[in-house]
Specification:
The complex is a heterodimer of chains A (535) and B (327).
Chain A (H helix, E strand, L loop, with lengths): L5 H14 L22 E6 L14 H7 L7 E3 L5 E3 L2 E6 L5 E6 L13 H15 L4 H4 L2 E8 L2 E6 L12 H4 L4 H4 L19 E7 L3 E6 L13 E6 L3 H9 L5 E2 L9 H5 L4 E4 L9 E6 L9 H9 L3 H8 L5 E2 L23 H10 L11 E6 L5 H16 L2 E6 L3 H9 L5 E6 L5 H4 L23 H12 L3 H18 L3 E5 L4 E4 L2 E2 L16 E2 L1
Parallel strand pairs in A: 1-10, 15-16, 15-17
Antiparallel strand pairs in A: 2-3, 4-5, 5-7, 6-7, 8-9, 9-10, 11-19, 12-19, 13-17, 13-18, 14-18, 20-21
Helix pairs in contact in A: 9-11, 15-16
Chain B lengths: L2 H32 L4 H9 L4 H11 L5 H13 L5 E2 L4 E2 H36 L4 H15 L2 H15 L17 H39 L2 H9 L3 H26 L6 H6 L5 H10 L3 H29 L7
Antiparallel strand pairs in B: 1-2
The chains are: A alpha+beta (535), B mainly alpha (327).
């Protein structure tokens, strides 16, 4: 266990490099070809924070998607351009009226308890399980008016109207296929089987010592012959961020992802020769961070004030100084890796404090004797140190243009409750886009989604033109019509700045160079690692 | 002290303890529910997507849709039957969750406690015996250092030296995962993981015991009966052990009794730094997730243990010191 010291790993890598293929000198494109896949090895990695339950659907938080992504699978996964790639479904067809989807399933799939997977399990997972437990799946699957299984390996779903983003709802994080014989007729959330998850993925659950580790081992009857290559995956629970960094540095873990390593530690790991830092793999999630504005608090309902706040922010500073260059500056409400992003209209206010002050003057907010135009509060996001720094930067940047900001801190439970209850003035937030603006973007800007729950339009922004455009995009089955609607809505939103978008987030996946095939799809490290190997 | 009197004292005390634990349970319940947010809003915040139906489903499942007084009555009712309830967030009984994590904490704090007491008494006695000389100064400075330095700093520095630089000991965890050791191999395996966290926790308390022992022994050493014993010609070593140390133990025992009551709750910093899967972290995670039943269960265990150790300390006092009477 302690053999993978840094010194040992460096020597090992040097030896491998010297013994590897000859690389043409001066060729910037050439790389040493990756060694052939080999069976064997135990991958030790980290899970932060420890999830309460490992059943996708019942629980959908980040760490659950990471670990349970090895146990469960969906009908499809998505490549880096968000095109569906066969997984449990080997092919799909769409009828001419764009309402009926036919999925042909893989034929030799078994669940971890040996039961074969059939169309009944797929129908159960879609129509009953996820519709019941998942707020993300519910509104989409409610559109399915008919679901049948003409034979055990075919599923036919008929929607009430065309819905173009429908194919984006079938990876394991949106709709994991769960065993019907285990869950049907039970209360899904309290079923004791939740303590021992059973899926179709390449790794099966063995053991979970709470607070300590989660162990999974290779599923011998996995439906892809020869895979997976790894023998075991172990997720260690390490609550302290410096302990995690130490674990990676000393080789006690070979892979970290998402929140495990704080941004300020990344440059140190980029410089280590035995580790590789990968920033892609988040195209499906496409998370966007913003300063959340409560439109019910004056003067934040004035578009000039919001534009001024946007002009007063130096997003490059945020990217380079707070996130150490990881991620990209946002250009609007839609992330550049999400479908229908239009670079022609996605333009945000550049950094210009002078312009900001002009706008505030025009809005009638003149500075008082102390130079303060108005005061607001900022509720910091309690998910890590870097978000606190972000709120502190917000206070500094706003102070430069005469807006006085008071910081409020709280923990995750209280934050979620306050956002849900609209009990805040400004805050910070980040949301996933799920590949298509109808799925992940619309919910924050339409009047019909102004609800007292987190991740809805809690800001209270309301613009009938925006509502109409999002409705057009939702209901049309024609990509060209949708593209036009999304282009128009991006234009309006970039001008009105209902939320002050900051960054397209990227979460670094850091792994030992001897581990291959880590990031294969747009699911990134949430992928099932069926073809990951050590060599 | 008569036996009848002792049993009467014990009976009265047990009744008082039961009432106190009940009062603590009620106070904890009200305090926890006073914190903003509930398990449903925590889970909504984690899920990345939510709708009112989701919140309503969760609240109904957790029993949160009923008035607070009803929830309190239900909780107390279960408690009086010995049922600690279910952690809805994890889907498992609270008693099972606590039983899983308690041994790890007791191992850690128990080892630290034994180490601290033994070393503290030893160093304190040594310092008192050689008062004014360099051994005394060295021990006093050391004790002050370990007392004043924050525990997490000591922990991180120990990890830096022994884990990163010297590579002698692992930096986190409780055992080698996947090795499936049994018997003595498992004991030896856990022992190497136990060294740094137990040391981190123990050094602080060792400093306390050392200072207490030293001060107490110096005070007792200046008493008349010690001078009498010395005048009688009793050997110095015997005076130290039989006369001074035994009488100087009372303040140390008081503090040890208090610390014993903290055996469950006092290790959360060390558990976090060393990823030790104990009950301190369980409580912190439960608090952040507003897992009410689990948190109340942990609080209950802690309060029971504290109250029991108070009683044990009082009884041991009376046994050790004939001047002290119980009841």
């Amino acid at each position: 266990m302690l053999d993978l010291t840094r010194r040992g790993a460096i020597l090992g890598a040097a030896a491998a490099g010297a013994a590897g293929a000859i690389v043409p000198v001066g060729s910037a494109q050439a790389q040493t070809p990756a060694p052939a896949p080999k069976r064997g090895g135990t991958l030790t990695t980290i899970l932060t924070p420890e999830p309460p339950i490992l059943v996708l659907g019942v629980n959908n938080q980040g760490p659950t998607q990471l670990a349970a992504g090895k146990i469960y699978q969906g009908l499809f996964k998505y490549d880096f351009k968000l095109n569906p790639v066969p997984e449990l479904a080997k092919s799909w067809t769409l009828s001419d009226d764009k309402k009926t989807y036919t999925f042909k399933l893989q034929e030799n799939v078994k669940f971890h308890d040996g039961t074969p997977m059939t169309a009944d399990d797929v129908l159960f997972s879609i129509m009953k399980f996820h519709t019941e437990v998942s707020p993300r799946a519910r509104p989409i699957f409610a559109k399915i008016k008919e679901a049948t299984a003409p034979d055990p390996h075919t599923v036919v779903l008929t929607l009430d109207s065309p819905f173009e983003p429908f194919m984006l709802m079938f990876d394991d994080t949106a709709c994991a296929i769960v065993p019907k014989h285990v869950y049907d007729g039970t209360d899904y959330r309290t079923n004791p089987a939740n303590q021992h998850p059973i899926g179709t993925g390449p790794f099966q659950f063995i053991e979970w010592q709470r607070g300590n580790f989660i162990r999974m081992k290779r599923f011998a009857d996995y439906w892809k012959p020869g895979e997976p290559y790894l023998d075991e995956i172990i997720y260690r629970i390490i609550p302290d961020s410096q302990s995690r960094a130490l674990a990676l540095q000393t080789g006690q873990v070979q892979l970290t992802q998402a929140n495990d390593i704080e941004p300020f530690d990344i440059p140190r790991f980029k410089a280590m020769p035995n580790l590789q830092v990968e920033l892609n793999g988040w195209e499906y999630a496409s998370q966007l961070s913003w300063f959340e504005i409560n439109h019910r608090v004056k003067p934040l309902d004035d578009v000039r004030v919001r534009q001024a706040m946007s002009y007063a922010l130096d997003r490059n500073f945020i990217l380079n100084r707070l996130w150490f260059g990881i991620g990209k500056v946002a250009t609007g409400p839609i992330v550049s890796t999400t479908k229908f992003y239009d670079p022609a209209v996605a333009k945000l206010q550049p950094y210009d404090p002078g312009k900001a002050m002009q706008l505030l003057d025009a809005a009638g907010l003149k500075p008082n004797a102390k130079g303060v135009r108005f005061s607001i509060k900022q509720l910091a996001l309690p998910y890590g140190e870097v978000w606190m720094r972000l709120s502190e930067y917000f206070r500094t940047a706003m102070a430069k243009v005469g807006i006085e900001v008071t910081l409020e801190t709280t923990d995750a439970g209280a934050w979620a409750r306050r956002i849900g209850d609209w009990d805040y003035e400004t805050s910070t937030n980040f949301l996933s886009q799920f590949g298509d603006p109808t799925l992940g973007v619309e919910r924050s800007y339409v009047s019909s989604n102004i609800k007292k729950v987190t991740f809805t339009n809690t800001g209270g922004y309301s613009n009938p033109k925006v509502d109409a455009l999002f409705t057009t995009a939702r209901e049309s089955g024609d990509p060209a019509v949708r593209a036009k609607a999304f282009t128009d809505v991006q234009k309006i939103l970039c001008d009105e700045v209902p939320q002050i978008w900051l960054m397209e987030l990227a979460w670094p996946t850091i792994h030992d160079k001897k581990l291959h095939n880590v990031i294969r799809t747009a699911m990134g490290p949430n992928g099932d690692f069926e073809d990951a190997y050590f060599a | 002290m008569g036996a009848a009197r002792f049993w009467r004292f014990l009976a009265q005390r047990l009744v008082k303890m039961a009432a106190m634990i009940l009062a603590i349970a009620v106070a904890n319940f009200l305090l926890i529910h006073a914190a903003p947010g509930d398990p449903a809003s925590v889970m909504a915040g984690e899920a990345g997507a939510a709708d009112p139906q989701f919140m309503a489903q969760l609240r109904a499942q957790f029993g949160l849709d009923q008035p607070l007084s009803t929830q309190l009555m239900i909780y107390l009712g279960h408690l009086l039957h010995g049922d600690l309830g279910m952690s809805f967030r994890q889907g498992r009984p609270v008693a099972a969750l606590i039983a899983e994590r308690l041994p790890a904490t007791l191992l850690l704090t128990g080892t630290a406690f034994a180490f601290a007491l033994a070393m503290g008494l030893l160093l304190g006695a040594l310092a008192a015996q050689r008062v004014g000389r360099w051994a005394d100064s060295a021990i006093t400075v050391l004790a002050l250092g370990f007392f004043a330095t924050p525990i997490f700093w000591v922990g991180l520095m120990l990890v830096l030296v022994f884990s990163v630089w010297l590579d002698w000991l692992p930096s986190f965890g409780m055992n080698t995962v996947g090795a499936d050791y049994t018997g003595w191999a498992a004991v030896a395996d856990t022992a190497q993981y136990l060294v740094l966290p137990a040391l981190t926790l123990g050094l602080f308390y060792m400093a306390v015991y050392a200072r207490l022992t030293r001060a107490s022994m110096l005070e007792v050493a200046s008493q008349d009966f010690v001078r009498t014993a010395r005048a009688k010609g009793v050997p110095e070593g015997r005076i130290l052990r039989r006369h001074i140390l035994r009488n100087a133990l009372l303040p140390v025992m008081t503090y040890a009794g208090i610390q014993a009551g903290q055996l469950i709750g006092g290790s959360i910093l060390v558990e976090t730094v060393f990823a030790w899967p104990g009950i301190g972290r369980l409580a912190l995670d439960a608090l952040l997730a507003r897992d009410y039943q689990l948190l109340l269960g942990v609080f209950l265990c802690t309060s029971v243990l504290t109250v029991v150790f108070n009683l044990v300390t009082d009884v041991v006092y009376a046994w050790v010191d004939p001047r002290v009477e119980v009841g």
